[in-house]
């Protein structure tokens, strides 16, 4: 039928890049193969502007001009009939009936099931342990399944105060001791001669620029785990947003409730009349047109 279907998972864990030209299409899960196949070498000024403002590239676009991304939970239909026709559809999310974030027993049951599934492996499995909500829950549940599991945490040595960057390490050590599991600390010393080389190697693996450098410490932790023969590390994502793991997320929940009142505040109105901010909010469907009219 001369048709290609591209689909991406709901959470957007795996990227999917594509580029369409009059007589050909290229797609893949990494930037470099697609970029080289059709010689895309120009930086997208719109994406660069968005990145410098928010720390990441906008949905649907990449840092490379004319190289696009399938959005999470999206199906892209590409038809070839003399001309290329694109048709994007959103995959409807179906939540399991009866599940509620207000039911602790249901949450625990679901987490136990999912962590147990992720531990099915032909190679040794370990855990990232940062001391936060998600990694602590996952490490705890994984230790029930495998009491000999190893947890890994990074330690930062710098000219700044030790506690400034290692508060999580202290929590992680205490938690690992409580669980009675093996705990490995990966030291990241700013004076290490190997650090710059490791950083350049990590950066060269990125498809797009990344403002959050925690990925580098995760890379070093994974490198140590691999040297110890542990090929898989369990990690969590999104727990802080769902359960209010940081003050900014708890504040966001409060602001959401207070939104009808904030529209009468002059500072609130002035901020959200900014065109780039408005564009960002519209793209992510955080606020509808009716609220913008009120603001």
Distance between the termini: 49 Å
* Helical run tally: 12
Strand content: 15-25%
Q: How would you classify the helix and strand content by structural class?
A: alpha/beta
The low-confidence parts are 283-295
Major sheet, described briefly?
A: 4 strands, parallel
- Write down the Rg: 22 Å
Instruction: Report the principal-axis shape.
Output: globular
Number of strands: 10
Strand order in the largest sheet: 9-8-7-10
Helix content: 40-55%
Offer a quick outline of the entry.
This protein is α/β, with parallel strands linked by helices and 295 residues long. The protein is built from 12 helices and 10 strands.
Structural features, described:
The chain has 295 residues and is α/β, with parallel strands linked by helices. It is 44% helix and 19% strand. It has 12 helices and 10 strands. A 4-stranded parallel beta sheet has the order 9-8-7-10, with helices on both faces. A 3-stranded antiparallel beta sheet has the order 1-5-6, with no helix packed on it. Strands 3-2-4 form a 3-stranded antiparallel beta sheet, covered by helices on one side. β2 and β3 (24-28) form a beta hairpin.
